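Session log. Operator J.P. requested a structure for one protein chain; no other inputs attached. Running the standard single-chain path with token output.
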Amino acid sequence: MFTSAGQHGTHRRVFLSCATLVALAVLSLTPFTLHAQQPASAQPALLRGVGISQQMNQQVPANLAFRDEAGNPVLLGDYFGKKPIVLSLVYFSCLSMCTEVLNGELRALQNIPLALGKDYEAVTVSFDPKDTFAEAAVKKRIYAGLYGRPGASAGWHFLTGDQTSIAALTDAVGFRYTFDQPSGQFAHATAIMILTPRGQLARYFYGVQYPSRDVRLGLVEASQGKIGSPTDAALLFCYHYDPLTGKYGLIVANVLRIAGGLTILVLGIFLWLMFRRERHPASPVPGLGR
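Structure written below.
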């Protein structure tokens, strides 16, 4: 099959865009912004100003207007209330990395026992004002269907909006991106965020793979213990969220406390059994001895 020079040019632009986005995904595995990694003058022009700045504990504006996947006008605050929220920012015509973000989010949500729609909500917002609610509906059918549990359709929301609302949301969560005119694609970092039920930023998880344990613990903490199990409470005693890495790490001091407590408990039981045996020696068996 032969291709025209115009097609070659299109393929080249797509390839360059994908390569740029892959590089951004790798860079986004580290938190905060690309400026923290190297001087601005050393960065490619396309990447300057791209990154994520944590806005921990900040309130996400509730009055931002969007449209849901059915085309109905909604406010972001309509999803605030009683449940924590997994927030992802993508755009629906993205060639590679946005799909990887959604795939990574899907895998994480599938691998936790908490139920989407019952224990927490997921809200995916396009930061491309050209995206339509029809495209959002397609994404919802795909990902709510792949999630494969009851309640997913009512619990995972895909929103589109105008530039004013998009800019206000991305500014509030510290998500910065640029548009590459030659390729027609956006340069952006990759992450998902956890919001408290009231819409405050609680956790950031970077890259395109999100450990299910971390997402689970983030949701439990964001809910202030209103969801989850005793196992989650025990894990949170041993693991602590590190904003510098965007991950949960082992708290060695607490693990040592648990180990020490178990050692004392075992020794206590052993001493109690020995003391009990001395006070109540076993009776001789009839017919044995003299």
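Operator note: Residues 191 and 206 are 4 Å apart (CA to CA).
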